[in-house]
Amino acid sequence: MTYTLQEAMVKRLLGYLVCVALLLPVTSIAASLDEAKAAVDAGKFAQAAAMYRELAAAGDAKAQYNLGLMYARGDGVQENPQEAVKWYRMSAEQGFAEAQYALGVIYFRRDGGVAMDYDEAIKWYRKAAEQGHVRSQLNLGIVYLRGDVVPQDIPQALKWFGLAAEQGDSDAQFNLGNMYLEGEGVPASMVNGYMWIWLAAENPQDAHGRSGKRKKILMYLEAKMTPEQLAEAKALAQTCQAQHYRSCKLA
Question: Phi and psi for 184 in degrees, rounded to 5?
Fold first, then answer.
């Protein structure tokens, strides 16, 4: 098939317009997300909620999560746990890890107007954890270690604590240390236990101010260790810290 010069120019123009039309919605949504965040930062919560609602209705997963967060906190909208769950779920079903984690937290709580559902909580924690969400990994480790809402599964607890610890979560590092001290699912080891608790105590990401208590535990352990054990544990811990907690060697 051949085209006249005029037909070819029209065809090229139409192709250009289609490309522009495809690009415009993405640019608009990105700008609107930025504007909504700016409104939140400025304390204009009602304005931000309206922006997020428009984007959420169009299917934007991050906007759906943020709108759910506003309903959970009552920022710019009347607090409504059911609405929060609605928007979190829409976001979570698109694979947004923060929304999946938020659902896990809500379904584990005993208040907030949403019925507890441990199966749902664990399902969403797992989906987020498999994407590398560190607090979900920590919470799964706790669930499997405690064994009160699911059968205790020490290998699973070790797996999820280990993944969270590698990402620098101080609580996961501390829990691993205790498991090595107690020999839960691993050979009991004062050296390995000290190593992980030292890492937790020295972790700059300790968001809960637990470093002081953990250092007291270290002092207690030091009194029970031989000089050789203590030297080995500290050397392993310092090497692990220098490697940003990745591929840490154990005794």
Answer: -90, 100
In this prediction the pTM is: 0.84
Contact 36, 55 (CB under 8 A): yes
Please write the tens of the pLDDT for every residue from 140-164: 999 999 999 999 999 999 999 999 9
Using the structure block, give the residue that is written with the tokens 């192709």: 15
> What's the chain look like in SS3?
CCCCHHHHHHHHHHHHHHHHHHHHHHHHHHHHHHHHHHHHHCCCHHHHHHHHHHHHHCCCHHHHHHHHHHHHHCCCCCCCHHHHHHHHHHHHCCCCHHHHHHHHHHHHCCCCCCCCCHHHHHHHHHHHHCCCCHHHHHHHHHHHHHCCCCCCCHHHHHHHHHHHHHCCCHHHHHHHHHHHHHCCCCCCCHHHHHHHHHHHHCCCCCCCCCHHHHHHHHHHHHCCCCHHHHHHHHHHHHHHHHCCCCCCCCC
74-99 b/e (C-beta count within 10 Å ≥ 16 → b): ebbbeeebebbbbbbbbbbeeebbbb
Tens-place pLDDT, residues 103-135: 999 999 876 678 999 999 999 999 999 999 999
Work out the angle at residue 158's Cα, subtended by the Cα atoms of residues 180 and 208, and round it to the nearest 5 degrees: 80
- Inter-residue contact 195 to 233 (CB < 8 Å): yes
Is residue 217 within 8 Å of residue 210, measured between CB atoms? Answer: no
